[in-house]
Amino acid sequence: MNIEIGKYVEQFVDWLSTVGRPFFDQVANIIGSSVKGLQSGLNAVPPFVMIIIITLLAFLAMTGIRQFKTSLKNYKKSFGLPIFVIIGLLLVYSMGFWSQLIDTLVLVLVSTIIILIIGIPLGILCAKSRKTDAVVRPILDFMQTMPAFVYLIPAILFFSVGDVPGVLATVIFSLPPAVRMTTLGIKEVPEDIIEASLAFGCTSSQMLYKVQIPLAMPTILAGINQTIMLALSMVVICSMVGAGGLGESVYASIQQADMALGFEAGLSIVILAIILDRITQAIGRQ
Amino acid sequence: MNKLFKTIAIAAMSLFTLAACGDDDQTKPVKILYPSWAEGVAMTHLAEYVLDNKGYAVETTLIEPGPLYAALSKGDADLYLDAWLPHTHQDYWERFGNKLEVIGVVFDDASTGLVVPDYVEIDSIDELNDNIEIFDGKIYGIGAGAGIHGNTIKAIEEYPLNYEQLTSSESSMMAELRRSIAAKEPVLITGWKPHYMWDLYDLKMLKDPKEVYLVDQIEILSRQGFKEDHPEVANFFSHFQFDSDKLHELMGMVGEDERNPKAGAQKFYEKYQAEIDSWFQ
Questions:
Q1: What's the gap in Å between the CA of B137 and the closest CA on chain A?
Q2: In this structure, what are the phi and psi dihedrals at residue B189, rounded to the nearest 5 degrees?
């Protein structure tokens, strides 16, 4: 008894990649041009201006605009992250990895935006309907546990070598927490609040937008934070299918046994990860 | 404290040297490293099968080229059958070569270059600049840091070409080739011989009038002192040679069933048994 599932999958992928060519090209175009456009746009901004912008972002995320006005105590507490941002980004710049950092940042952001567009509505659907949840949950498990190397090659057959298969592989790997945390957040809205809103004659769409989503927001933001972290863990794997950025330097350092290059590029990834993590967490706390 | 360290280090070193002495060929496994390149995979599996068959213990490990050279130069492994010298692996050789020995030459016509499918009507790298739109200005390459990647950067500078090289990995590049050939579209990749791409598709290597891509030998490298420890195995590898047809045949047989490369190696050995056995003389 020898079931050759792999062979059938291969034939199916080959068939799909030729039949679906126009559609895939369209998708590749949209994603590819938005990645390229953002990369060249952000790379055109002088590094020091960019560092100031990100520092301000970090500062605002830490203080929250309202608290900034009311209390000096919070104002003092929120210097830690901005200082780290300045030092960390200047270090990346001085090591010569600035444009790669921007490239990686764009890859992560584009992947995250796609994930939000798909993940949050899907999470809401799962929270509303048990049946949808029963179908989606095993698919999410599959996406999270299937090794990325397995779908990289089909991704190339569909979307050619470059940023696009990298972004899609990242989406597949990092989507589950966004969906799951959204579902969890909405399900955890206390029953008595729901009843009170119903008593005030709340329609179901008002319930969703004015009650459930705002109350679920901290959980949803925690999911987005996890998504960004997972997306960052994919950057090296994505460089194997032609997505550039810091991952490419790490991959090159493995091939050349170049420890110095690997450490510097790896450190840059860590700095980027810490900045994104702290900023999204701070926004979640506000 | 330093004294203590020194003592411990010396004790450890002497233990290691003691352990390394007095072993004969048969008991200490021969450790062969190989990267995931088709010709290296095929040769390594054949060597493993033949040596195994003759009663030598063999261990093979798949590893990226950088760590491979580093491990071999440190003496953590014994052999590497797939060194492209003097050009493609020049960087590695400059860094690690003084701690390595060449114990055989497998093949003397290993070429790298820019490759297109047969149906593309271009024959030379000179013509590329007039046909940028056909190829979308892209050269699909393998990993940054590979020798052929560096050569392609050189080619882009020297001709000069208005192309960008996309770096990915060998499997990604091959997937792109497969995709383009299925759709009968033009595509430009960095290719090399020997490789299984030539058995799968009708391709041609573009002429290289400026001679940026130089012809290499595939050499067998060992750690220092391997010859003294394993004279018989070293002798076998000094005869371990193929012409182009045989190397491609071996790659075809080993690659036929990727889950069981040993079967292909066995088939090849049985076909050329007399010749391969004579390599032990």
A1: 13
A2: -125, 165
